[in-house]
Write a structure and sequence with these properties.
2 strands; two-stranded antiparallel sheet; mainly alpha; about 70% helix; elongated; MetI-like fold
């Protein structure tokens, strides 16, 4: 029987049998770990490449918007108000005479910042609380479960309107903090279930019988094998949080001018949709493509990490 094949593969050492004989190449291929198999499946999935390219482009323009948009998004001239697309201005102008193309490109930065900060915060808070509840159980699990039930009872959109209305000026940090406060319970439940399943596995029970402490069990044995559902949910949630930021900004309680945001532009364009539909088409299209890219990436990662779907 092969011994320590996954660890050997990860360390770059050819796996061997109990007598020290190196395994044949075809046997090594069969002994790949879950993460190796997942990466192998992702490389064969065209959806993964398409969504990844869209996301990489989005990240690029978020960091360097001036690379493809040379006009200041806050430089407006009322003489150009609601003018349609032209050779020098591909997306036309909005009601204030601002270049829609420049605002669409620069609007990606705030949306990506909110999405990333919210996802990282929710992933850390939810996975830690859910993981501890699932591992220790008992009174800790009961308390955290009841606390998460309370937060589940608050509609996130209504909560956003109430919470963010208390702040006169919306910012990336304030919007992200709100999303983290109300977004962690769902991931906590996912992490809790994954940890409960992982801690009952034979390799964890064996490590515990050999005297491994709580820290080693959690970090070395349970966490790596409970990460898959957390990663899948976080990937999809990133797109959802970007959409949530746009919705809150559309309602006037999220990001506020002079910040450049797709939600702000969609809100101002909705009043002129009959006279100047281009004002709504481009920021709404950018938002839809971004959310769709993260959802497709999350689906691809889920299919790769779920052995039942292979």
């Amino acid at each position: 029987m092969p011994e320590n094949t996954d660890a050997a593969i990860l360390d770059g050492v050819p796996p061997t049998t109990q007598d020290g004989t190196a395994l044949p190449q075809d046997t090594r291929d069969k002994a790949r770990s879950l993460w190796t198999d997942a990466w192998y499946d992702l490389r064969r999935n065209p959806v993964f490449y398409i969504s990844s390219l869209v996301i990489l482009f989005l990240v690029f323009i978020s960091i360097w918007p001036g690379a493809i948009a040379h006009t200041d998004p806050l430089q407006c001239d009322l003489i150009n108000s609601q003018n349609g697309p032209s050779g020098g201005h591909w997306f036309g102008f909005d009601q204030q005479g601002c270049d829609v193309y420049s605002r669409t490109v620069h609007g990606a930065r705030n949306s990506v910042e909110v999405g990333l900060l919210s996802t990282v915060g929710v992933a850390l808070l939810g996975s830690v609380l859910g993981g501890l509840a699932g591992y220790f159980g008992g009174w800790l699990d009961a308390i955290l479960s009841r606390v998460s039930d309370i937060f589940f009872g608050i509609p996130i959109l209504l909560g956003g309107v109430v919470f963010l209305s208390a702040f006169k000026g919306g910012s990336v940090s304030i919007v992200s903090t709100f999303i983290i406060l109300l977004g962690w319970p769902q991931l906590a439940r996912i992490a809790r279930g994954a940890v409960i399943t992982a801690k009952e596995q034979d390799y964890v029970l064996a490590a515990k019988a050999l005297g491994a402490g709580h820290g080693r069990l959690l970090l070395r044995h349970i966490a790596p094998n409970a990460l898959a559902p957390v990663i899948v949910w976080s990937t999809i949630a990133l797109g959802t949080f970007i959409s949530l930021e746009a919705t809150l900004s559309f309602l006037g309680v999220g990001l506020k001018p002079p910040a450049v945001s797709w939600g702000i532009d969609i809100s101002s364009a909705s009043e002129q949709i009959r006279n100047a539909p281009h004002m709504l088409l481009f920021p709404a299209g950018a938002l839809s493509i971004t959310v769709l890219a993260f959802i497709l990436l999350g689906d691809a990662v889920r299919d790769a990490l779920d052995p039942k779907l292979r």
